[in-house]
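Supplementary Methods, section 5.1.

A reviewer requested that the exact input to the structure prediction be made available. We therefore reproduce it here, unchanged from the version used in the analyses.
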Amino acid sequence: MRVAYATMLYRTLPPAEAVVKLHNMGVDYYELSYDNFINRKGQEDALLEETQAALKRQGLTVSSVHLPYDKPTLDMLAQGKEGAVTRMIRWMRAARDMGATIAVIHTLPLKRSESAMAANISVLSRLVKEARELGLALAVENRLEGDLVGSNVDELIKMASSVDGLKLCIDVGHLNVNTRNPPDEISKASQANLIAEVHAHDNDGYADEHALPMTGTVDWYRVAGALLHFDGQITYEVSCGGPEAKCDNYVRFLKMFNRNVFS
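The structure derived from this sequence is encoded token-by-token as follows.
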């Protein structure tokens, strides 16, 4: 199992600086988070190019990239707007150029219905073809919002069974809010052999806190049991926006946690 750390651990830093910071903390694998871009609106294209160039200078690559998940973009995807598709493809090309093998995408923000499922399958079918040509695995992530399609594992499996090559990103924190029983849902996805990546973070069962494991209500030992034979990527998608010294300690804690629970 490959262990990666999301750049949202240093979410106030520019993306390339966050990767370098994780590298200097002894981390080997990185997920480029959209969080490091979202507060720099109007700079996205330039920032993507700067990030690619900076990582190349440093001799660093990322293992995965979280594609944009802002509601306006996902709404435009749901409406079939070509500009939104083009934006996702631009991000996937950047992901490829930064060395990533996985691109994570959220489902469309649509209320649960047959038409919502069909809309997701249509968009994902197009994007997974582009991802395949770039050498990326496109992994669709379970949503936080329980009334939207794609918030449960059964719906993700249905999408993947309808889209050749589509993989899953199982978000433990989102499951903890929606199901209160993440290990059983993880086991279901694992048995389907569809998981490319797992996002690991904790919460109180009511809000998406992206907190450190063992500080919320997730039963991490049962989660580890459900992932016993998993050979994909687990990403610590923990958010830290305080002083860098605090975020450094988050990284140190996650290393200890990983050794004790997943190693």
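The beta strands are 2-6, 30-32, 64-66, 102-106, 137-141, 167-171, 195-200, 233-236. These observations are discussed further in the main text.
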